[in-house]
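Let's practice the habit of predicting before peeking. Look at the sequence and jot down your guess about where helices and strands might fall. Then scroll down.
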Amino acid sequence: MAPTLDQQTLSIVGGVDNYTLQQKVHRLEAGTCGCIEMANGYDLYDADNGKRLMEVEEESSLFNRCCCAPNHSLKLNFHVVDQEGNRLHQAMTMERTGCLCKKPCLGCCAIFPFCSDKATFHVGAKEGKPGELDDADVFGYAVQPSGGGGYLTPTLHVMDRDGSDPKLSVTGPTCFGGCSELCCATPFKAEDKLTITKMKPKDAKSALRELLTDADTFSMQVHDKSITPDTRMQLIGTVFLMDYMFFERDIDGVAALTAVLTSTCATATAAASSSPASASAAARVVTPWRSRVIGHDLGGVVEQCPYSDFGHRRSSCAVRTVYDSAANNAE
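Done guessing? Here is the structure:
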């Protein structure tokens, strides 16, 4: 007989059709612009009445997070809570094997199985390191398909324990992310049965939270009432995998821009004190297609690409320096 969730958990998730998943803000991570990567924490709510259903905490090593985040190995522990917020029991463990030895190409185009992301859902609490847990209590998976990962649309297959044909496929848009997240929601759909949405900020406070942290808010709406509680729990776990795959690099642009602006101000000040021509060159701003030159750094022009999402692959377009002959000639 296949493992199944406890009756209390089945009753909780089976009685809710609209969920809200809210990631917690870590002040140390936000204050360092993501330089200190903390273990994530989440709350799961009934969106209709605001009742907190579960508390979810990440379990991972600091070394793994600092070197590989967001493609690191981890476990997510799902705790059922009462009305006062006290933990009652652990309903599920989500296991994800990260990008070190077992999956060195995780985060690249998912051409082969060892490049594909995957979440394994275990019943109850599981002791051990991610990637080394036994499969005795596995009741489902969320798998990124190999052969392209959905090609131009990010796709995740939700499967039962046998891992055969997917019972649901969650598919997202071709282009999303970056600054568009400040004004646009990002929907992922499983045909007409389910909609998972990365929510846009509702006010100035949530916009600031979106800009300065990678703490995100998701909604999950179940349209097909026949979806079983076990499947709903697998879909909830799929939302968390999506967050790590597509939305955990949001703060990179802020960190890069902060470094660039700091360097630009220092360089422009030094240039102004030595040569008016250099000061003019340092202050020059041009806007080519899909990029903008915003200042000088060590004699070159600092060019920062915007965020982009193409297919299933999310790219943060790291800051790079290109030399500018006009600036060098002016100096």
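How did you do? The two ends are 76 Å apart (CA to CA).
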